[in-house]
Amino acid sequence: MDTEKVMQLVVTQDEPDVAKLTIYGDITDGSFFVLLFDKEDPSTTGGLDIVKALSELSDDVKTVEVHINSYGGEVMQGVAIYNALRDCGREVVTVCDGFACSIASVIFMAGSRRIMRPASLLMLHNPWVSARGNAQDLRKQADTLDTIAELSKTAYMTGTSLDRETLDAVMDAETWVSPEQALEWGLATEVSGSKEADTPTQSARETVMAALLLTNVDIPVQTSKPAPVDPEPKLEPKEVQDQGTTETHFQRLARIFGDN
Region annotation Disordered: residue ranges (predicted)? Predict the structure, then answer.
C-alpha cells in the first residue's frame, strides 16, 4: 500500500512566501489504525506530522495557509497541531474547505485569518469517550472530560465575540455552524468566493445539504444565540433516540438552510 501522507505542505514558485498545508482526514497519529490493520492510513494527520512540516520551512516563508476538511479525531493530537501553528512565528491563515468538526474546528481557530468556504460547516461539541469501570472511575472520567473541554473553549473564545454562557450552550448542543453564524460569532473572519461575505449563496446551501444527506449526519445547527438549556424533563435513552427521529432529515435541512 502507498503510505504517502495525504497531508501536504507545498510552496510554489508563484508564491514563494506562502506555504499551503492540507489537513484532510482524521486527526490522529495513526497508531490505532496500525494496531488494527497492521498498516498506516495515509489520510491521517498527527501533531508530529505538522511539527516536522513546519520545521522544514525556509525563512522565506512568511505565511502558512492551512486547508482543513476533517470530522476531527484525537484531542491530544489536535491541541498539539493548534499550538504548533500558533507558535510557528508566521502568519497563519486557516481555510475550512468542507467540514471542520470537533477538534478540527479547534485547529481552524489557530489562524489569525479564518476563512470559510460558502459551502462549509464547523461543528462544535464537548469531548466524549467510551468508558467503563465503577462509579468512582466514571466520575473521574467525567471530571477529566470537563477539563479537556476547557482546552477547546480557550481556543474558541480567543479573538471571538462568544461569551462563556453562549459557548457552553453551543457545545452542549453539539452545534453545526454555518459560515454566516461563524462570522457573527467571530469564529470565522471571512467567507471566500462571495461579495456578500456574511451570506452563503443558495447554491452553497444546496451543496452543503447534499453533502449532509450523503453522510447521513445529524445536524442541530444553531443560527442565533441559543436559549438556556432546560434540563427537564429527563428522558430515558430510548426516548431520546425516538425524539431524534420525529423530524426528518429533509425537514431539518429545509429548516436550517431556508431563507432567513
Answer: 222-248
Helix (H) or strand (E) holding 58: none
CA distance 67 to 117: 11
**Domain containing 33: what range?**
9-257
Nearest residue to 182 (alpha-carbon basis) of 99, 245, 240, 248: 99
243 within a domain of the structure (yes/no): yes
Give me the CATH number covering residue 239.
Answer: 3.90.226.10
Query: With contact defined as beta carbons under 8 Å apart, do 29 and 81 qualify?
Result: no
| Span 112-170, pLDDT tens digits | 999 999 999 999 998 766 667 788 877 777 777 777 788 888 899 987 888 999 999 99
- What pTM was computed for the model? 0.69
- Please name the amino acid found at residue 30: G
Q: What are the CB-based long-range contacts (under 8 Å, 24+) for 193-197?
A: 193/117, 193/118, 194/118
- Nearest CA to 53 among 8, 107, 18, 110? 8
Specify if 239 maps to a domain: yes
Number of structural domains (the chain) is: 1
Could you tell me the three cell numbers for 51?
511539527
Q: Which residues are catalytic?
A: 102, 125
